[in-house]
Amino acid sequence: MLLTAVVLIIAVALIFDFINGFHDAANSIATVVGTRVLSPNLAVAWAAFFNFVAAFGGGVKVANTMGKGIIDFEMLRAQGSEAVLIVIFSSLMGAIAWNLLTWWWGLPSSSSHALAGGMIGATVPVLGFKGLVGSGIAKIAAFIVLSPLIGMTLGTLMMLASTWTVHKQTPLKVDTWFRRLQLLSSAIFSYSHGTNDAQKVMGIIAVVLYGTIWKDRNFEITTWMILSCHAAIALGTFFGGWRIVKTMGHSLTKLAPIGGFAAETGGGVTIIALAKLGIPVSTTHTITGAIVGVGSTRGWRAVKWGVAGRIIWAWVFTIPASALMALLVYGVARLVIMALS
């Protein structure tokens, strides 16, 4: 019975990873589609490939943060297998619900913060606020602000540097060069997306296993966890929807290939650097910041701030909304368990 429950929760975790890729496909392909360098179908295949390639160089620091840096893993494990399973199940379902809602609304919200919020909401009724790791949550909250600012700064600098480098060239040459370079920059960003986002679910799977059937083993992220999570997010990206691409690639600001290159490179470098530090940031926030930075180099009016404002509100509400949804799922799950026992 316990083994079956563990397998089912791991399956739900991989479904979340698939939905994460599906929801965040726009982050990886919005600029390359918006500049018409690749068709949407080719773009998602390109992005999915580099999502998976990240399995072989991304590390596991973010996975360890998600597994032990938001909730007190040892305290949760001490509550028993049932508590571990219901907390993780509720966390995942709360995050999935918020991801699907924001996907339907066409808002590029953060899957990372949805999962963090879900974990917070599901943990409090079991362990209370003392079961939360305040320093880890504070770090994640701080980078809600910092990651888009860093992405915006690097996107702006990349755009200025690129423009200065080619300012003596004809527009046709510039367009041709950066159409080719954007294949590289979109690969960098897709790699960074896999590096950051796939690791979240590795940490969740590890909590499930080392909190239940592997209680006697040391917490560790194994090879099969890495490969399965990267495969799930790559498949999700491959089948990702068009709704958010429209917001990110077209509604926020107009992008030429040189701008797409600058935004993807700035955003991708930011995410890879922060992943190496073990900080689970939002790829959505970061690429949005980079796109805004690139657009602002053409003047403040080049950015559609009304669209940007809607996106920012989605960021603000993601953690509390997903926490509330996870809390509701936890309450229903408890009632079902009580009815069956």
From TrEMBL:
<keyword id="KW-0812">Transmembrane</keyword>
<feature type="transmembrane region" description="Helical">
    <location>
        <begin position="83"/>
        <end position="106"/>
    </location>
</feature>
<feature type="transmembrane region" description="Helical">
    <location>
        <begin position="224"/>
        <end position="245"/>
    </location>
</feature>
<keyword id="KW-1133">Transmembrane helix</keyword>
<feature type="transmembrane region" description="Helical">
    <location>
        <begin position="311"/>
        <end position="333"/>
    </location>
</feature>
<keyword id="KW-0813">Transport</keyword>
<dbReference type="GO" id="GO:0016020">
    <property type="term" value="C:membrane"/>
</dbReference>
<dbReference type="GO" id="GO:0035435">
    <property type="term" value="P:phosphate ion transmembrane transport"/>
</dbReference>
<dbReference type="Pfam" id="PF01384">
    <property type="entry name" value="PHO4"/>
</dbReference>
<dbReference type="InterPro" id="IPR001204">
    <property type="entry name" value="Phos_transporter"/>
</dbReference>
<feature type="transmembrane region" description="Helical">
    <location>
        <begin position="112"/>
        <end position="133"/>
    </location>
</feature>
<feature type="transmembrane region" description="Helical">
    <location>
        <begin position="140"/>
        <end position="161"/>
    </location>
</feature>
<dbReference type="GO" id="GO:0005315">
    <property type="term" value="F:phosphate transmembrane transporter activity"/>
</dbReference>
<feature type="transmembrane region" description="Helical">
    <location>
        <begin position="44"/>
        <end position="63"/>
    </location>
</feature>
<keyword id="KW-0472">Membrane</keyword>
<protein>
    <submittedName>
        <fullName>Inorganic phosphate transporter</fullName>
    </submittedName>
</protein>
